[in-house]
Amino acid sequence: MAETIASIVSVESVTDLSVDDDVDRYELIVDGPTVAGTLTELAANLSSLTATARGIEVTLHLTTDVDVREFVERLQRRYPETQLVARREQTVPHRTHDGIRAALEERLTDRQLEVLQTSYLSGFFDWPRKAPARTSPTCSTSPSRRSTGTCA
Predict the structure, then answer these.
(1) How far apart are CA 26 and CA 18, in angstroms?
(2) Is the pTM of this model over 0.90?
(3) Could you tell me the end-to-end alpha-carbon distance of the chain, in angstroms, rounded to an integer?
(4) What are the boundaries of each domain within the chain?
(5) pLDDT in tens, 69-94
(6) Backbone phi, psi, residue 118, to 5°
(7) Which end of the chain is more exposed for a tag (fewer CB within 10 A), N or C?
(8) 3 state DSSP class of 13
(9) Backbone angles phi, psi at 11, to 5 degrees
């Protein structure tokens, strides 16, 4: 399967991420436009994207100010076979700045909060990224709740 995917012209590399025999999962490095990139350009928040023998199935979220019909029409201009299969309206609880901060403070250690804030303020999460991602190859971290990273 990986060889078949790699033969597609715009796919630069394929990495098999399959954990078990039931589901095939691959990471693709693609040169050129992608469905996910197009959805992002159209202001959609991508929830899931699954490639099947029938095509690509996408679940996404749109803000209330986006006209769904116009969104689908714009998507169909790039991908004419696009079909809206279902539309659901959800009420998403509004989180205030203080509410988000309180949730982070509850779940993260002081050091983790400091690293998160420093990363955010330095532009680490901007796209395209202004700050380079730098990690030491000799560092490892423990998944425990406490910060237990070690570096050689």
Answers:
(1) 7
(2) no
(3) 39
(4) 2-78, 93-132
(5) 999 999 999 889 888 888 888 887 77
(6) -60, -45
(7) C
(8) strand
(9) -85, 120
pLDDT tens by residue, 31-62? 888 888 888 888 888 888 887 777 888 899 98
Task: Indicate the burial class of 134 (C-beta count within 10 angstroms; 0-12, 13-18, 19 or more).
Answer: exposed
- 83, two tokens: 């079909």
- b/e per residue, 19-34, with b = 16+ CB within 10 A? eeeeeeeeebeeeeee
Q: How many Cβ atoms are within 10 Å of 75's Cβ, its own excluded?
A: 19
Alpha helices in 1-152 (DSSP H): 2-6, 35-41, 68-78, 97-107, 110-121
Q: Which long-range contacts (CB under 8 A, 24 or more apart) does 102-109 make?
A: 109/145, 109/146, 109/147
